[in-house]
Amino acid sequence: MLSKRKVDAEKAWEEMERRYQEGEVFEAEVKDVVKGGLVVDLGVRGFVPASLVEDYYVEDFSDYKNTSLTFKIVELDQEKNRLILSHRAVVESEKEQKKKQLLESLKQDQVLEGTVQRITDFGAFVDIGGVDGLVHISQLSHEHVEKPTDVVAEGQAVKVKVLSVDRDNERISLSIKETLPGPWSEIANRASKGSVLEGEVKRIVSYGAFIELFPGVEGLVHISQLSHKHVGTPHEVLQEGQSVKVKVLDVNEDDQRLSLSIKELEEKPVQEVEKYELPEENSGFQLGEMIGDKLKDLK
Fold first, then answer.
1. What own/partner pairs with CB < 8 Å and gap ≥ 24 does 91-97 have?
2. How does pLDDT run across 251-284, given as a tens digit for each residue?
């Protein structure tokens, strides 16, 4: 009996050595849960340290007993009767393989579903199926974003567009903004010609002022449309940050241009009628008569 067990153990070690050298992935049942990890019976005792069970932290291993997992031998020493297995190595290898396949299949401008994994000061990392891509803060929204947490949250499902793929460095640039309707979308309906809207003076230039009507949508009030009165510089009548009402003169959605007017909302000043005094036809004397009288005096 002892000899048979010894022979079986020798054969088991030989098999484990082969699997170890070839890096074979195999399936086995967890026989017991002990302090610090899992025990697997492979003809010889195999031990799975807690850190090598999963690629994430596991608090309670009781559910693993009598379940089958895939393993890879990461350490073998027959003399010390030491056989260390890892399920984590298998999981990480599968994820790496899946990652490479995904990187190869990704194409620019492709739209995918993803999940926000991590949020940083400069953007958010989104899992698009086994690989994370970065959505830079500038690509989170059409509107200005102060903090990524104002727009997205960890675990949130999002739609992203692939901007670029660097397969050598395994870097993927994504955009949420590109999947959202643009600020100029249907602007002809939101700012129809002739409509009166309220906006904020964003920029003042020598030839007029740019008014923000909606987030990301600015229109120009040309200097000639600032007032009925003569305006030397736009700064004479407007200041940045000021709230003003404007009338839409023209809308060009394709070129993303809006022509606005403040003057059209002001009453035209009453023009003063210039008065001209007409010379009296009978003034009582004429210039020629006065000169004639003087000439007589000189004779």
1. 91/54, 91/55, 92/55, 93/25, 95/55, 95/130
2. 998 889 999 999 999 888 766 444 445 455 444 4
